[in-house]
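user: Here is a favour to ask of a fellow structure person. I have my own habits and do not want them to colour yours. Could you put it straight underneath, so I can go through it closely?

assistant:
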Amino acid sequence: MKNKVLDLAMSINDFKHMNELMVAIDSELQLMKSDTDLVLHGFYLVLSELQKDSTLQRVSLLSTMLEVKKRYGVLTMFKHTAIDMCGITLAINHVRMLLKLKRLKQKHGCVA
């Protein structure tokens, strides 16, 4: 599934968050360890929507994912399952946790 997500990301014109995405996919945080398939499914769904409408892309991976989730939930709420929304939410939470961890490491002088 990782390769599928990365292939989709590479196929998106002007995708600006490849480094952030690769760090998120390769991290060993608890969410990724326990629910890998669901988190990767969330990333895949976000990227699928971004491929359809690149105007959803924002300044960071997290803000892009939040924008896609907002649009995804409103426009297609009857087409997708609760598991789809759960996957997107888990992927967003995973990225949030990475950012928090990075800030904590920077605050305490560790290499992030």
Q: What stands out?
A: The helical segments are 2-11, 18-26, 30-34, 36-52, 61-75, 82-107.
